[in-house]
Amino acid sequence: MNEQSPVVELSLHIAVMSLMAVGGGVVLLGPQVGHYVVEGKQWLNNEQFSAAYAIAQAAPGPNLLFVSLVGWLIGGWAGAIFTTLAVLGPSTLLTLGAMRLQACHAGGRLTQALGDAFAPISIGFLAATAWLFTRISNVSWHADVLTVLAALILLRTKINPVLLIAAGALAGTLGLI
Fold first, then answer.
1. How would DSSP label each residue in 140-173?
2. What dihedral do alpha carbons 29, 128, 6, 63 form, nearest 10°?
3. Which residues make Cβ contacts (< 8 Å) with residue 140, sequence separation at least 6?
4. Alpha helices in 35-65 (DSSP H)
5. Per-residue pLDDT tens for 26-43?
6. What global pTM score does this model have?
7. φ and ψ at 20, to 5 degrees?
8. What are the C-alpha distances in Å from 6 to residues 43, 80, 138, 166?
9. Alpha carbons 161 and 173: distance in angstroms, whole number
10. Sign (positive or negative) of CA dihedral 64, 69, 71, 72
11. What keywords tag this UniProt record (predicted)?
12. What is the CA radius of gyration of the chain?
């Protein structure tokens, strides 16, 4: 039996997922890639995946490229290169095709219906990503309370999210969570 390499297998999985990355790749690919490489294939553990995601999000550049770091952890430079091409190639071609179609049929009923459908889909994917990373990173009920409090503050005020991140880091450093 001929087994595929982890790099090829992950790249094919990401290529398919990138075609469904509606509303931003991170909101769909974050949970999907995390589930695939941690629970499905056990190539990484939760801490490795969360750290890779956090490092990629803190680095300058497109948020979607966290898959490059995951690919690198699994397959070195070849993993990084192939997963990057897998996440960018198919979705770029699909976007270019959709833009051309939309330009030809601007204002049509189908174009309007698709535009209206994408907003709730994007919100659902964003909520799924938030739930996944909350489940992975919250290790106690204190962390759950802090997460809910931070979400409420973000929804009710115009405070800069960086300040909440700093507060969370301080709470962790002081051993409160």
1. SHHHHHHHHHHHHHHHHS---HHHHHHHHHHHHH
2. 30
3. 177
4. 46-58
5. 656 777 888 899 999 999
6. 0.59
7. -110, 15
8. 8, 12, 29, 36
9. 18
10. positive
11. Cell membrane, Membrane, Transmembrane, Transmembrane helix
12. 19
